[in-house]
Amino acid sequence: MDTIASLFSFITTPVSWVIVQFHSVYGKIFGPDTGWAWGLSIVSLVILIRICLIPLFVKQIKATRAMQTLQPEMKKIQERYKNDKQRQSEEMMKLYKESGTNPLSSCLPILAQSPFFFALYHVLNGIASNQTIGVINKSLLASAQKAHIFGAPLAAKFTDGSAKVEALGASLTDVRVVTAIMIVLMSASQFYTQRQLMTKNVDTTVKTPFMQQQKMLMYVFPVMFAVFGINFPVGVLVYWLTTNVWTMGQQMYVIRNNPTPGSKAQAAYLERLTKHVTHHGKPRRRSEKTIIKAIVAKGRDRNEFERGFINALTKSGLVAQADGTVVKGEAQAATLTEDGVATTAAAKRQQPKRQTKAQRQSGGTKAAGDSPSDASDSSDSSEKTTSLEKSDEPQDAKPAAQQPPKGGSNGRSRAQSGQRKGGPQRPKSPSKK
Question: From CA 298, how far away is CA 400, in angstroms rounded?
């Protein structure tokens, strides 16, 4: 570890200078020789580095998203060339080149932090060895050696002997308890961060080696941190625990507001977005418009969560536009009408109620028993009535000729069997009887 740290000695001076500047600020508040002053200086160094690495983090997110988008194509290549590993690798590299993605882009933040990490290790190791390094002079060296974090010196390690720990003014039990707790927290935060990514922000519709690789890293990284953590000084453990917590919070924000399509996080996000848009009638932020715009542009390629979002807007009378906005649509009128509320200016045309067969037969019998004078006086009205009765009858109703005639059992049997003497005859109107 000392050899690796010496390779990054070129950045030791800038790192030590940043720590000293933060220490001068916190020393005025908590005292220059306290663990709070030196510990918060290391925490501030982490925050400053991570803020500078935000562009790389954004690039990491885009690279990871692009890799997840390519997963269906990767799966097809694996199934097509499952017996030819060399051709499979060539097709994979060709796919990466055509899409402009790089699998190593997801490791950029970790690689960019490595020089700062090893430079800080070099600085703290010099403090433990009683050597001035960078801009840390003898007075600052003595102050740093007096600093204790929960009873453990800033430069002490889990593997240090009792003589070295006593030289730093602490007990071996305090050092090992504090370092063990910090190592567990560091490994647990790393595990939770990776697990959160795998369980919430991964498209579960496809299974590729990339997902298996990420799942393996979920268990490998915490073990690596636990193994190497016993050789880290307390100050380095503070640094790495802080950066893990920062990564966890940053990832939680990204998963909540910009989830991967097809993941559980997207389902939860679209559910929240649906409630807001249906309540207010429009999206809140520009990022929401961007996501709605992307969903509309997909068309038939939408996943089940995105189709559910579009259907929920339609049922609420809203329509998502190509520019990401949401406007009121014609579906609102149809939905409200189904609920029993009038929504259109023009009332729906009222259809006449359908009569039963008994009502139609009783109406025909009554019409047949009318007097001739009544029939002659209202010939026009009876014709209108007859035409209205015909329009009210359904198409599957029996013709009027099949009704049993007045008198005669033979005629009744022939009418019921659908046979009429002399072929089909047109029914007589009651007004012509």
Answer: 58
What span, in angstroms and rounded, lies between the C-alpha atoms of 116 and 95?
34
Look up the pTM and report it. 0.65
N- to C-terminal Cα separation, the chain: 118
In sequence order, the β-bridge partners of residue 326 are 320
What are the phi and psi torsion angles at 54 (to 5°)?
A: -60, -45
Other Cβ atoms within 10 Å of 202 Cβ, number: 22
The predicted-structure confidence for 153-177, as pLDDT tens digits, reads as follows: 988 888 888 888 888 888 899 999 9
Q: Which of 169-173, 336-340, 374-378 has the lowest mean pLDDT?
A: 336-340
- Distance of alpha carbon 143 from alpha carbon 317, whole angstroms: 68
Residue 177's pLDDT is: 93
What gap in Å lies between CA 35 and CA 41, rounded to an integer? Answer: 10
Output 423-431 pairs: Cβ under 8 A, ≥24 positions apart. Answer: 425/401, 426/401, 427/399, 427/400, 427/401, 427/403, 429/382, 429/383, 429/386, 430/364, 430/367, 430/368, 430/370, 430/375, 430/382, 430/386, 431/375, 431/376, 431/378, 431/379, 431/382, 431/383
Q: What is the mean pLDDT of residues 37-46?
A: 92
Q: Give the CB-side neighbour count of residue 364, counting CA atoms within 13 A.
A: 21
**Phi-psi sector, 214: left (phi>0), alpha (psi -120 to 50), beta:** alpha
DSSP state of 136: B
What is the pLDDT averaged over residues 51-76? 75
